[in-house]
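In response to reviewer comment 3 from the previous cycle, which asked for concrete evidence that the modeling workflow produces usable outputs, we include below a single protein chain processed end to end. The sequence was submitted unchanged, and the resulting structure tokens are shown without manual editing.
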Amino acid sequence: MPRCVLPVDQLIKNLYDYFTKEKSNLGPLMPVTQMRARVVYALQISEFTLKTVLKRTQQKDVEQIVSEDEEVSSNEQDVQQLVRVNECAETSTSKEMNKTKAYKKRAKLKTTDLPESIKCSVQDVIYDMYFRKQQVTLSTLLMELKAREVIDISCSSLRQLLFNIGFKYLKDNNRRALCEKPAVVQQRQVFLRKIRKLEAKDYNFVYLDETWIFSRGGCKRSWQNNDVRSVKNVGGEGKRFIVLHAGDKNGFIDGVSLVFSSKPKSADYHDSMNAVVHKMAKRETSTYLKQKSVIVLDNASKLIFEIG
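The workflow returned the following structure tokens.
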């Protein structure tokens, strides 16, 4: 009678059902010391089948060990020859391996692991070029660094170095230079001291400022091509209106806004903002203030007037 062999799927199903029963039982169904009996019961096979499989696998393990020993003994000469070849290859490729290791070892760019002294020297060179009123670009800075023997790198590496030490390629702005003039810095310090003293006296700060808008003002840019039909005829922007308003920490103050038209004599709308208009706005603001306050406004020459 031919032997009945269970398929792998059925064996897996039997094993899964066995572990499910153990889970429901909260422990093993049979003593753990009865190893063969547990395997037979779990897989639902005969004890004869288990013995046959174990005997067959043990014979395969013994044959594999013997074959491995024979291969080791037969390949000893080949191993010795390979050792000689490898020794020759190592001597010829040692330089290439060193280059490869050096390449893999560097995980950072050359400009990120520079000494701080070199980074400070680059900053000093830039500040000195500005002091001598020279143009600071990549090409001019690179020439200056090489001339002073600070560092010798490529243009792209210098660009990365400048980013790393906090520099950006921006449009020149004279406003920053004006704001840092000694006279302006001194005035700013005096202003901040006054603000601190008034804050200590529990004053409310009201900020008064103005802006402007044209009646026919529009967008400065539009989608165009080379065809004349996509070009807009730009006319006058119309009458200019000056808008004033005041606000404090709680927002804009109701009832103090002021809008009036002006005929500009120059491009600077401050010509229309004379002392009379500002004094009127100041009085209008004072009537709506509910606590002792300080009005802060621009320091333009046209806006200077005495507050009674």
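The mean pLDDT is 75. We consider this sufficient to address the reviewer's concern, and the full set will be provided in the supplementary archive.
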